[in-house]
Give the backbone structure.
Amino acid sequence: MNYTITPMLMGRFVGHEKSAFTYKKDYGVGLNAPLFTFLVQGGGKNILFDCGPESPELAPLKTHRQITEHVSLQQQLEQHGLKPSDVDAVVLSHLHWDHSYNLELFPDKPIYVQTEEVRAALTPIPCEEHNYNVKDGNGLPQWLAGFEAMVQLEGDFQLADGLQIVTLPGHSPGLHGLLVDTAEGRYMLASDHYPLIENFEKGIPAGSHTSLYQWYDSHKKVLKLADYVLPGHDDYVLRRQVYGDMM
């Protein structure tokens, strides 16, 4: 089965420090980094890879970064002729706050996440508490809205013919990507394992990580499995509206 991949721009971080994406490089360089959700379609199925951040109005109240150019997930789905009820499943790469809002839109849909990621999010090490949106007066973590629908995985998982969930720890303990068969070849939706395409092309670890050893092992895994990569926070993704379609 071949699929298509449609990037959906959810907003941008304002003046994001590039060195948070490129380990030991680019200190003091600012980026207005895009935030993405990916719509994977094929065989009559609509799969979401990640669900985006909160609104720009809520972000300052949650001690999060300023977000501009925000488009709600409902609006993005509507622009593609879909409603939340048309989504068949959600694959959450990891549970950091900028990837795991809006889960309340999918109360009866399976939400795939690694058990190791849930464990890391429930009891984060101190430097990761902000990423998982715990403490700092932020209330309950946003991803708890989808907790009852979560399908917790213990490693790689064949989601469907042509769709494989692939563990890629390093940036976080339980991050996983989605390997998608398309008419062009196999695309890895890599999320923050590769925030920028140069992380993949030059083998530069993500600046934010919990294990460099795991990051390099995951990088080798991607090189072996994927023909192409779509990173998590790079305008490179916007060079095309749809990937995988040879038309």
Residues 13 and 100 are 16 Å apart (CA to CA). The chain has one domain: 4-239.
